Amino acid sequence: MSPVESLLFLFIAVGAVGFLFRNLYRLFAMICLGEGENRFDRLWSRFRGMLVYAFAQVRVVSEGFGVNHLLLFWGFMFLLLMNLEFLVSGVFPRFSFWFLGDIPYGAMLFMADVMSVVVLVCVANAVIRRVFFRPAHIDPTVDAFVILGLVAALMIAYFGYHASEIRLGEKEIAPWTMPVSFLLAPLFEGMTPEDAHLTARVFWWIHALVLLFFMNYLPYSKHMHILTAIPNIFFRSVSFVNTVPRMIFRRGERFGVSKIVQYTWKDLLDFLSCTECGRCQAACPAHNTQKPLNPRMVIHAGKMNLLANGRDILASRPYDTIAQASDKAEMSVALIDNRDESIAVDAIWACTTCGACMQKCPVFIEHVPKLIGLRRHLVMEKAAFPEELIAFFENSEQRFNPWGIAPNERDKWVQDRDIKILSHGAQVEYLFYVGCSGSFDPRGRMVTQAVGKILNAARLSWGVLGNEEKCCGDSLRRLGNEYAFDILVKDNIEMFRKYGIKKIITYCPHCFSTLKNDYKQYGVDFEVMHHSQLIHKLLQSGVIKLKTHEDCSITYHDSCYLGRYNNIYKEPREIIARVCAGKSPVEMARHHAESFCCGAGGGRMWLEENLGSRIYAERTKEALKTNASVIGVACPYCMTMFEDGLKDEKAADKVMVKDIAEIVAERLG
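Above: the chain sequence. Below: its structure as C-alpha cells.
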C-alpha cells in the first residue's frame, strides 16, 4: 500500500469510526432517557444466560432456520479479529497478528477463510428463503436485502483480495492456512502482475469501504440488534416475566405510560433490540385471529417513537429536564395513536397477556408489561377504555367480583356442613381460596365442590373465607386499573394476616399466579399451590387413591397462567395418566410452552371479541382434531371458552370439558 493510500484510508477510517461512535453515543443517551430500574443483580446468572442465549443462541436454533443465523453469527465472530487486523494494517501496512506465532496465526487465517465461505452460504440461504420460501411472519423488506448484499460483498472482496495476493506471490504462508483463497488463486493466472496488483487493490478498497459503511449503516437499519441484542439478553429478566411493576400512588404521580421516556431504560433497550424475526407475531393468538395487535409492530412502533422523540429530547437538554423536554417532544409524535411511530388503541386492548410473544422472543423482549403500562394510562388518566369494562370495574370495586353479585352469595356452593369457614372461628392449615368463578359461576361451583371432595378425602385441615373472600384482582391489574387492584390486595393481605393464613390452595390459575407472584410486591410470601399441584402431590404420596379407567381419551389444554407463567406442565399430565392407567393425554398440535391461548386472559374474559375470528374457536378446533372425548382443563376461564367453542362447533353432546379436579373426584377410591 502506498503512503498516499494509507493517508487517504486514515482520513476515511477516522471519519467513519468517529461517526460510528457518535451514533453509538446517541443510542446510549436515548436508552438513558428511560426511568431507572435495577437490572444489575444476579450477575453470574445473567452472564450464563448471555452465553446460552446470545452466543449459543438456544432460542434462535429452536426453530429450523435458526441454525443459519447461528452460523452467520459465529462467522462474524471469527472474522472480528481479522477485520480488526485489516483496518489497522490500512494505516500501518506492516501490522499483523503474526507476532502471536506461526501456529496460532495460521489457525486464525484458516478459520477466517473457512468461516467466510460459511457466511457466504448462509447469505445465499437467507436470500433464497426470503425470495422463494418466505414465511408469512417475515416482511420482504429492502433493508434485509441491503444487509445481505453488504455481507456478501465483504466476503467476495475478502476472497478476491487474498486470492489475487497469492497469485502475486505476496503472501508467504502455507496453503493449509488459507485453503479457499489458494483454490481461487488460479482464477487470476491469466493476469499480468500489474493487473493482478490493481485487482488486489480494488478488492482491498471494496472490502474497506463496505466494512466501514456496514458499521455505520447498522444503527439506521433493522439490524440495529447486532449492537443491542447481546446487552439486552444480559439484562433480561432471569425468570419468565410473570408480573408487572407495582405502582406507588403519591400526590401528583402520573399513571401508566403515555410518553416513550416513561418506560424504563430496559424497555427502551428492548425497543432497540428487536430482530424483527416475526416469531412473536407468529405465536400471538390475537394476531393469528385477525386482531389489530402485532407484537412485533408494537415494539417497532416503540423503536420509531424513541428515535423520533429521542432526538428532540436530547437536543433540548441540558437546558431542560427529561420531563420538560419530553413534554415538548410529545407534541411531535404521540406514543398512543394510529401513526407509524405510535401504538394503536385497538392493539393495546387486543392483548390476552398470554406471554407467547415473550416465550418466543430470541432476545427476551418483554412485550406484555409495556402494553399493560399503556392500559394503565388509558384507564386511570384518560378513562378511555371499552364500554364493557365500566360495569366490570364498578362491580369489582363495589362488590368485589366481576358480576356484581352480592358478596353474601359467595358461600352458596357450600353443601357440606363439615366445610370450615374461617369467620366462624375455624383454625385450619390450608386456606382454599375459591375465587370468583369458583364461587359464583354455576359451572365453576361444580369444580369447587370436586376440589372440596378431594381435600376431604385426603383428610387435610382446610377451610374457606366464605362471604369474606374478595377477588384477587388479576383482571383489574392486567386491564390497567392498578388503583382498584392496589386496594383489593391490601384488603386481602389484611384478611389473610387476620386469620394467620400461611398456605393457600387455588382453583383458578389467575388467582394462583396473582397471589403467588404479584402479592410478593407487597412484602408477603404465602405458600400458594394450584389445585393440580396439590392433587399431584396427594396421588404421589398415596394419600388418595384412584380407580383407574383404561378406556379414556383425554386431551389437555395448558392454561397460559399455569404453564408459561408458572411452568406447571408435568403435574396435570401425570394426574391424567394415573386416571387413565398410565395412558398420557392426547396432545394437541400446540402444547406445553407452545400452547395456544383460550382468549380469556389479560381481562379479555370481560370484553367482547368483535374483531377478527374468535381465539377460543381456533383452540377448540385444535382440541377436536385430537378426537378425544374429554378436554381436560385446569382453569375456569379456559373451561368457559371451550364450552362456548363446543357449542359453536355443535360438538357439546360429543365432547365434554372437565377440570382436572372433576376427573380425579370421579375416580376417588
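The chain has a mean pLDDT of 91.
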